[in-house]
Specification:
Elements: H1 3-17, E1 21-25, H2 41-46, E2 54-58, E3 62-66, H3 71-77, E4 84-87, H4 95-103, E5 109-112, H5 119-129, E6 135-137, H6 143-146, E7 159-160, H7 163-166, H8 170-183, E8 188-191, H9 194-201, E9 203-204, E10 217-221, E11 225-228, H10 236-244, E12 247-250, H11 255-260, E13 266-269, H12 276-281, E14 287-290, H13 294-300, H14 304-331, H15 339-351, E15 356-359, E16 364-367, E17 391-396, E18 398-400, E19 403-404, E20 407-412, H16 418-436, E21 439-440, H17 445-457, E22 468-470, E23 479-484, E24 498-501, E25 504-507, E26 511-514, E27 517-527, E28 530-537, H18 555-572, H19 578-587
Parallel strand pairs: 1-5, 3-4, 5-6, 8-13, 11-12, 13-14
Antiparallel strand pairs: 1-2, 2-3, 7-9, 8-10, 10-11, 15-18, 16-17, 17-20, 18-19, 21-28, 22-23, 24-27, 25-26, 27-28
Keywords: Aminopeptidase, Hydrolase, Metal-binding, Protease
Domain Peptidase M24 C-terminal: 531-590
Family: Belongs to the peptidase M24B family.
Length: 591
């Protein structure tokens, strides 16, 4: 079916059930950012493939509510689908619920699939609509009625990581989680989020592209710990290891029934990482504690084993990036490089190294105006051919058995303009300012965000995305709970956190610039004025200097850039051929 036919089929089901509006979130029962094929519902219904958005469908209007990162992409992908782009004013806000409140008459019925909506989303919808007499039903899966060839759940094998890799046993992690539960007198904890489950049990899989996770739920009780998983995913040896660790294995489909049968006094649920269907299954006799999963905070702070392994992964990634940019420079004049072909080549360079598992997200290879789309992914229709001119932005990452990487670089493929060099240098100053930040313990991410943006603001420029996100250890490339963005997120920057610093500038229709490194938060000094922290840069890849306008840099920025590039060369030179080393030596020559 074409997208218009799919929309017609959904509306026919709505009419049959007396539903005035149907909401489709971008999520799954685990409230994941990246989804198995079965749960790519927004893409199936509307054609929009971005990772953040919500569809709201009424009889005479169908809209996609999404934020500024996806405006250009959505405008393109929604053409002739019957869906219109509705631009969010506040990222993540349930503005579609307020629109429905203004649009629908009292007595109307609004529905959604509670397996796809987080508790927080469901509450926002209910709070906006129910007080004005609009009925909300969170147990309606319309798509299963009309999606005839809907994919099945993935069946890829799962596997356990050794304590030598993770630095901590699952038994120790469960004990730490239970200590947090005890502090709030919770007697049960249901975990839906796949990265939390993976971290606690030291388990990995291949159920979601780019994320080494396995579909499952984990129920932690005082005397019993149950993993709900497709048992066919586990080898006999791994199942025995789980049993030895006190983990009972039950079928994936039994999870919701287990919640409904709970006899716990108090259960801890994360409202942003738990679907409404789970929340609604909790017995009325069980009190619900709504708070962030304890494991989310715990796994954000990497132990020394994870940090040491991550440093190894950075070397492997730096080798691949060096060979990739050398290859692009040498072959761009051939006239046959495209955005898709260079993304494939970069993946091949990474795969040629040891312990590579997958890319950590779809590579963003944006040439010229495509670089101005922060979440661009080339398609056959948009696939641009590179020429020996203009700017190329490449945002990419790898999943290695010893770490997760995420890096963005911009290079010139030919002559550049004064405006391009100025924008590049201003963004570079932001990256350097964030990297050099020294701050008191207890500092929040929005303060690091402001430090990074200051040189960009000073030039009357800004960017519409966050400055940084947490990164997992051989896990999700986007990891909470901390973030470097303007939002007042009350999570301190703590020692052991790995976070990106990635300011940018985007000239729609012309070019985009973003320079991203991963940094490790570290304690610096304690004195009479308090305890202070700083960052160690982990990413190992040269930053192009031919785009730098030296007149816009202070000496401290010049010193940092020269020191960083020199360090990159020292870290990688012994792993490169003589020709590669000579090329990198030139690229890292002091400004």
């Amino acid at each position: 079916m074409a997208h218009r036919e799919r929309l017609d089929a959904i509306r026919a089901e709505m009419r049959a059930l007396g539903i005035a509006a149907y909401i489709i979130p971008s999520s799954d029962p685990h409230i994941s950012e990246y989804l198995p094929e079965r749960y790519k519902c927004i893409a199936w219904a509307s054609g929009f493939t971005g990772s953040a958005g919500t569809l709201a469908i009424t009889e005479d209007f169908a809209g996609l509510w999404t934020d500024s990162r996806y405006f250009v992409q959505a405008n393109d992908q929604l053409q002739d689908t019957g869906f219109d782009l509705v631009k969010l004013k506040v990222q993540g806000a349930a503005e579609y619920a307020f629109w429905l409140a203004e649009t629908l008459p009292a007595g109307s019925k609004v529905a959604f699939d509670g397996n796809l909506a987080s508790l927080a989303v469901a509450q926002a919808v209910k709070e906006a609509l129910e007080p004005i007499g609009i009925q909300v039903d969170g147990h309606v899966d319309l798509l299963d009625r009309v999606w005839n060839d809907r994919p099945s759940l993935p069946t890829a094998p799962a596997y356990l990581l050794s304590e030598e890799t993770t630095g901590e046993s699952s038994a120790s992690k469960i004990a730490r989680v239970k200590a947090k539960l005890g502090a709030k007198r919770a007697t049960a904890h249901f975990i839906s989020s796949l990265d939390d489950l993976a971290w606690i049990l030291n388990i990995r899989g291949n159920d979601v592209p780019c994320n080494p996770v396995v579909l499952g739920f984990l129920l932690i009780e005082e005397e019993r710990h149950t993993l709900f998983i497709d048992e066919r995913k586990l080898s006999a040896d791994d199942r025995q290891k789980l049993t030895d660790a006190g983990i009972i294995v039950e079928d994936y489909a039994a999870a919701f029934a287990a919640v409904a049968a709970l006899q716990a006094d108090r259960i801890w649920l994360d409202p942003k990482r738990t679907c409404f269907a789970v929340y609604d299954a909790v017995p009325k006799t069980t009190a619900i504690i709504e708070d962030i999963n304890p494991s989310t905070r715990l796994k954000a702070i990497k132990n020394e084993v994870e940090i040491a392994h991550t440093r190894q992964a950075m070397v492997k990634d730096g080798i691949a990036m060096t060979r990739f940019f050398k290859w692009v420079e040498e072959h761009v004049s051939d006239g046959n490089l495209t955005e898709i072909s260079i993304a494939d080549k970069l993946q091949a360079f990474r795969a040629a190294g040891t312990d590579f598992v997958d890319i950590s997200f779809d590579t963003i290879a944006g040439y010229l105006e495509h670089g101005a789309l922060p979440h661009y992914k080339a398609t056959e229709a948009s696939n641009a051919t590179l020429r020996a001119a203009g700017l190329l932005l490449v945002d990419s990452g790898g999943q290695y058995k010893d770490g997760t990487t995420d890096i963005t670089r911009v290079i010139s493929l030919g002559e550049t303009t004064d405006a391009e060099r100025a924008d590049y240098t201003i963004v570079l100053k932001g990256t350097i300012e964030g990297s050099l930040a020294v701050f008191p313990k207890g500092t929040r991410g929005y303060q690091i965000d402001a430090i990074t943006r200051r040189p960009i603001w000073e030039n009357l420029r800004n960017y519409g995305h966050g400055t940084g996100h947490g990164v997992g250890f051989f896990l999700n490339v986007h990891e909470g709970p901390h973030t470097f963005n303007p939002s007042n997120v009350d999570i301190p920057v703590e020692e052991g956190m790995i976070t990106s610093i990635e300011p940018g500038l985007y000239r729609e229709g012309a070019y985009g610039i973003r320079i991203e490194n991963l940094v490790l938060s570290k304690d610096l000094e304690s004195n009479q004025f308090g305890e202070f922290m700083h960052f160690e840069t982990l990413t190992i890849c040269y930053i192009a200097t031919d785009l730098v306008d030296k007149s816009l840099l202070d000496q401290k920025h010049m010193d940092w850039l020269n020191s960083y590039n020199s360090w990159v060369f020292e870290q990688l030179v012994s792993h490169l051929t003589e020709e590669e080393a000579a090329w990198l030596k030139e690229k890292t020559r002091a400004v």
